[in-house]
Amino acid sequence: xxxxxxxxxxxxxxxxxxxxxxxxxxxxxxxxxxxxxxxxxxxxxxxxxxxxxxxxxxxxxxxxxxxxxxxxxxxxxxxxxxxxxxxxxxxxxxxxxxxxxxxxxxxxxxxxxx
Length: 114
Fold this sequence. Notes:
By secondary structure, the chain is mainly alpha-helical. It has a domain at 6-83. The protein contains 4 helices and no strands. The mean pLDDT is 78.
C-alpha cells in the first residue's frame, strides 16, 4: 500500500467500481449517543477486511478540544524542516490535467462581489 490512510488509498488508487460503501444505519441520534452507536458497529465489524477504522474503540479523547496556542506553535516547529513525501516526484500528465481543470473551474466560481 502506498498511502498511510487505507481508506483514502482504496478511494483514490483502486478502481471504485470494485468497492462499495454501505450505509449501516440512517437513524439520527443525539450527539451524546454517537459514540455508543459507533462502538456497536465496531464491535460487530472491526477486524473484518472491509472495516476501515484504525481503532477498535469509538472513544475519542480529544473530541471537542482545541489546541492551545503554545501547542500549535510546538507542532508548527516540529513540522519545520520535514521534507514532504512527494518532493521531487514528478506528476503524470493525467494528474496535471486534473489539477488544471480543477483550478480553472474553481476560478470560474469565485464571487468577486463584496
